[in-house]
Design brief:
Layout (H helix, E strand, L loop, with lengths): L15 H10 L6 H11 L4 E4 L6 H10 L11 E4 L3 H14 L8 E4 L5 H10 L3 E4 L1 H10 L9 E4 L2 H6 L3 H9 L6 E6 L4 H10 L4 E4 L10 E7 L5 H11 L4 E5 L3 H13 L4 E4 L5 H13 L4 E4 L1 H4 L7 E6 L6 H8 L9 E7 L4 H11 L4 E2 L5 H22 L3 H14 L3 H13 L8 H4 L37 E2 L1 E6 L9 H12 L7 E5 L4 E6 L4 H8 L2 E2 L2 E2 L3 E7 L4 E2 L5 E2 L9 E8 L2 E8 L15
Parallel strand pairs: 1-6, 1-7, 2-4, 2-5, 3-4, 5-6, 8-13, 8-14, 9-11, 9-12, 10-11, 12-13
Antiparallel strand pairs: 15-22, 16-18, 16-21, 17-18, 19-20, 23-24, 24-25
Helix pairs in contact: 2-3, 3-4, 6-8, 14-15
GO cellular component, one term: cytosol
Keywords: ATP-binding, Cytoplasm, Helicase, Hydrolase, Nucleotide-binding, RNA-binding, Stress response
Function: DEAD-box RNA helicase involved in various cellular processes at low temperature, including ribosome biogenesis, mRNA degradation and translation initiation.
Length: about 625
């Protein structure tokens, strides 16, 4: 089976809570290793998976094995061995996201360098899944602080890497501490003799799955990557869009929701952009592609599935906004450009913790992806000025300007002003909405209200006062007082709305400081939020048309909900308290170096994805 077969995650016999999480994450079709591994692992069979790093192995074993976990037992039932601390954390975080709808589920990453006392406390509280490095797992076995007597399954992830790092004896020792009837899944890029011996010794009649990865990419495509750093992704993308010589762009993200959100934010910044995902009907998909071909759209944000088979001659650039977990997906993505002998550009955004995926892509394709320098503010200014000069030349060569020459001559005589000053004033008027020299807040400041870097359009850059939100009198934001009013939004939990989406949309589109967006409550069919009572009518009218989760906000004042005037604003962490009939969501606002992060989480959730134990984990 392959991605081309039409098989979808919903076709697997996964537990319903796991299917729900996969759907929410936005996964659509499984990669080859996932398609071939999930059914036998669900059936309890041992599996050997031979596939390169970056082919989607984590979901291949996590989804079926999590479906078989007994939540009534708070003892380790699944053990995953990983060669490095980084991979252990990554696998644990992925499992936490897949199990978000499993009540009482807990996963614990165990690795060297972390407090042993902290790990002991969490083990005593009870966990169903342990993900760890061999050395630290051995330490716990020697101390008898880790019980494996009720283990259902063991996963050896990147077994050849554990062999290379000298952990193979530790792996064997750990396997000898596991029950005889446990299931084993072994994943490795290669099969050295030592790994083959372990497979013969500890696996029972395993199904061997070999995945051939793509080995070549189009030579006509120049491949570059930018390491995500302090500048947010959207800022980086808009700088690249401004500076690169291009025709049309295809931007890839992981989920269907992300296609809509990113397309909306690029549109808000003045780009002709559309979304392409699996939820679109065939008619709408064809319409979007036709608009891209005809030049009505310059950018399409797409998922892998939606862009399969797409062949548009105009596409000069492919942006991997989210790095793919599957190396074959990367090859398919960048193959949308550089077709029929044409030149193409492929740019990959890589977070520091995704560097292993970058290396996997380089190994699989046999090509080096070179680092790129993000265009600076000066680069953007130079580009805008060059385009402005080109426009001047085009108008001078192609338009009859006699009427305007007469007008300028009259103005010069009447006001005794030099032609240079008049030309400068006219240039200022023309570029006022899109300054030739970008201001800092337009392209370099962290975006307010969205830690993913979704920001407000630069063409709408105005002062806080002009946008209807009063700036701090003290300049520090401390001790300010703002009269607040409660508003109703026509989007709720049933539509997929999250607090971060609502806060980000309002902060970015209305320019309201994040400290003045309060008490967001998500209900089934609507939401409520408190905003400054002195918002200008034009701001409210604009918010009426802002879309979140595929619906316009349709913001209206909520009856009888004007909060007490002069409510103090404090830039310390705050939370919305849950009343008896309040929605089961809370908003935490965490100040980090002047930015604000918005996180939504379910009350009573299990262990969170971080190194410190969450309260109640």
């Amino acid at each position: 089976m392959s991605q081309e077969s039409g098989l979808r995650f919903i076709d697997f016999a996964l537990a319903e809570p796991i299917k729900k999480a996969v759907t929410e994450i936005g996964y659509e079709q499984p990669s080859p290793i996932q398609a071939q591994s999930i059914p036998p692992l669900l059936g309890g069979r041992d599996v050997i998976g031979l596939a390169q790093t970056g082919t989607g192995k984590t979901a291949a074993f996590a989804l079926p094995l999590l479906s078989r976990v007994d939540l009534s037992l708070r003892v380790p039932q699944l053990l995953v061995l990983a060669p490095t601390r980084e991979l252990a954390i990554q696998v644990a975080e992925a499992m936490q996201s897949y199990a978000k709808f499993l009540p009482g589920f807990h996963v614990l990453p165990i690795y060297g360098g972390q407090s042993m006392g902290l790990q002991l406390k969490q083990l005593q509280r009870g966990v169903q899944v342990v993900v760890g490095t061999p050395g630290r797992i051995q330490d716990h076995l020697r101390r008898k602080t880790l019980r494996l007597d009720q283990l259902q399954a063991v996963v050896l992830d990147e077994a050849d890497e554990m062999l290379r790092m000298g952990f193979i004896d530790a792996v064997e020792d750990i396997l000898q501490h596991t029950p005889d009837g446990r299931q084993v899944a072994l994943f490795s890029a290669t099969m050295p003799d030592a790994i083959r011996r372990i497979a013969k010794t500890y696996l029972r009649d395993p199904l061997e799955i070999r995945i051939k990865t793509a080995t070549t990419t189009v030579a006509a495509i120049r491949q570059r990557y930018w390491q995500v750093s302090g500048t947010h992704k959207l800022d980086a993308l808009t700088r690249i869009l401004e500076v690169e010589d291009s025709n049309a762009w295809l931007v890839f993200v992981r989920t269907k929701t992300a296609t809509v959100e990113l397309a909306e934010r690029l549109e808000a910044r003045g780009y002709a952009c559309g979304a392409l995902n699996g939820d679109l009907s065939q008619a709408l998909r064809e319409q979007t592609i036709e608009r891209l071909k005809s030049g009505i759209l310059d950018i399409v944000v797409a998922t892998d599935v939606a862009a399969r088979g797409l062949d548009v001659e105009r596409i000069t650039h492919v942006i991997n906004y989210d790095i793919p977990n599957d190396t074959e997906a990367y090859v398919h993505r960048i193959g949308r450009t550089g077709r029929a002998g044409r030149k193409g550009e492929a740019i990959l955004f890589v977070a520091p913790r995704e560097r292993h995926l970058l290396r996997a892509i380089e190994r699989a394709t046999g090509q080096t992806i070179t680092a790129m320098h993000l265009p600076s503010i000066e680069d953007v200014a130079d580009r805008r000025m060059s385009q402005f000069k080109d426009q001047l030349t085009e108008v001078l060569n192609g338009q009859d300007l006699s009427v305007f020459e007469s007008l300028i001559a009259d103005y010069q005589r009447e006001n005794d002003v030099g032609l240079g000053e008049i030309a400068a004033a006219l240039a200022y008027m023309v570029q006022k909405e899109r300054p030739l020299v970008p201001v800092e807040s337009e392209m370099t400041k962290p975006m307010r209200g969205d830690s993913a870097g979704m920001g407000h359009p630069p063409s709408r850059h105005r002062s806080e006062e002009a946008r209807g939100a009063r700036p701090s009198r003290s300049g520090s934001g401390r001790g300010d007082e703002v009269s607040m009013c409660r508003f109703r939004l026509d989007v709720g939990e049933n539509h997929g709305a999250q607090i971060k989406n609502i806060v980000g949309a309002i902060a970015n589109e209305a320019g309201i400081p994040s400290r003045n967006i309060r008490k967001v409550e998500i209900h089934a069919e609507h939401s409520t939020v408190e905003l400054p009572a002195n918002l200008q009518p034009s701001i409210l009218q604009h918010l009426q048309r802002v879309w979140v989760s595929g619906r316009p906000l349709q913001i209206t004042p909520a009856e009888g909900t004007v909060s007490a005037a002069r409510t103090p604003v404090r830039p310390r962490p705050t939370a919305v308290r849950e009343e008896p009939h309040a929605p089961r969501k809370i908003l935490s606002i965490k100040s980090v170096k002047g930015e604000h992060e918005y996180k939504s989480k379910e009350r009573g959730a299990g262990a969170v994805k971080r190194k410190r134990p969450a309260r109640g984990s």
